[in-house]
Amino acid sequence: MIYQVKHLPAGLHFLATPIGNARDITLRALDILASADVLAAEDTRTLRKLMEIHGVPLNGRHIYAYHDHNGAQARPRLIALMQEGKSVAYASEAGTPLVADPGFVLCREALAQGIPVTSAPGPSAMIAALTISGLPSDRFLFAGFPPSSRGARLKFFTSFAPVQATLGFYESPKRIHKTLGELCETLGGNRPAALCRELTKRFEEVRKGSLAELEESLRDSPVKGEIVLLVGRAEHEEISEADLEADLRRALETMSVKDAAAEVAEKHGLKKRDAYQMALAITDQNSPQ
After folding, report:
1. Are 233 and 165 in contact (CB under 8 A)?
2. Which of 87, 108, 149, 167 fits a disulfide with 8 by CB distance 3.0 to 4.6 angstroms?
3. CA distances from 71 to 68, 99, 109, 207, 272 (A)
4. Is 104 helix (H, G, I), strand (E, B) or coil?
5. pLDDT per position as a tens digit, 39-62
6. pTM of the model
7. Positive or negative torsion for Cα 91, 92, 98, 104
8. What is the CA radius of gyration of the chain?
9. Listed residue (225, 214, 228) closest to 181, CA to CA
10. Are 194 and 208 contacting, i.e. CB atoms less than 8 angstroms apart?
11. Beta-carbon neighbour count of residue 166 at 10 Å?
12. What single DSSP character describes residue 122?
């Protein structure tokens, strides 16, 4: 027995579950599963199997299903149990609750009712993929699942074109080739990318290359399994000194020197100090002699 049955305070306790390898669960998550008065899960079968693997008994407790399709019906019951002083543990099907997961509304409702909410952190497919992708991790944006219709998808992808961060998408193997083609169309095929699939599982694979290279590699070699697609940030375009000065002058019309320099430096990938010195020079030129 590697878990401990403890008194768990009344409230909502989120816990992360493995994204593939069952041994990735944390000891704290096992303690919560063993101690909670009430169990809730996005997929009750997955949680039941996980508890069996780790020897955590149900002890007569019922596992409530809580997912996208029954949230409106299941939520009032769970909230009522917490208001009665029960501790409720909620587990996503895989990974961290609220990351592409229906637990958000349950969390919001619990907080609105003054119910304590805690989280036992753990596995996340997005973070696992980012860790092994080789792409910049100092700034990233999780974009979730793209829309299903082509028009909505193109608009969705285009909105991320100027974002100076590594982008993360979840996608199905049936649509990944189409997604790569649409990303080439909207973001440009030269963007660096990493296709990470079956993370922590036996057939884990990471394919790296440009968006165009990954799209080409999948034409005759389809993939299976759960996929995280990471796309590198846009490269800054070279800007002439005249254009840079023009941008600074426009920014200075409504901003302080410091703020104008910071915005223009961010936009063009410059050092803030250099932009600040240029902004100061422009200000001095415009000052009455």
Report:
1. yes
2. 87
3. 6, 16, 11, 37, 47
4. helix
5. 999 999 999 999 999 999 999 999
6. 0.79
7. negative
8. 24
9. 214
10. yes
11. 23
12. -
**How far is Cα 216 from Cα 54, in angstroms, rounded to an integer?**
42
**From edge to edge, which strands make up the β-sheet containing 87-91?**
63-65, 38-41, 87-91, 11-15, 117-120
Q: Is the pLDDT of residue 289 over 60?
A: no
Q: Can you tell me the distance from the alpha carbon of 197 to that of 129, in angstroms, rounded to the nearest whole number?
A: 9
At position 283, the amino acid (one-letter code) is: T
Q: Which amino acid is at 229?
A: L
Please provide the distance, in angstroms rounded to a whole number, between the alpha carbons at the two ends of the chain.
Answer: 81
Here the tokens at position 57 are 């008994």
196-217 per-position pLDDT tens digit: 999 999 999 999 999 999 999 9
Cβ(97)–Cβ(119) under 8 Å? yes
Q: Which amino acid is at 252?
A: L
* pLDDT band, residue 287 (cuts 50/70/90): low
Task: Retrieve residue 72's tokens.
Answer: 């409106």
Amino acid identity, residue 115?
A: I
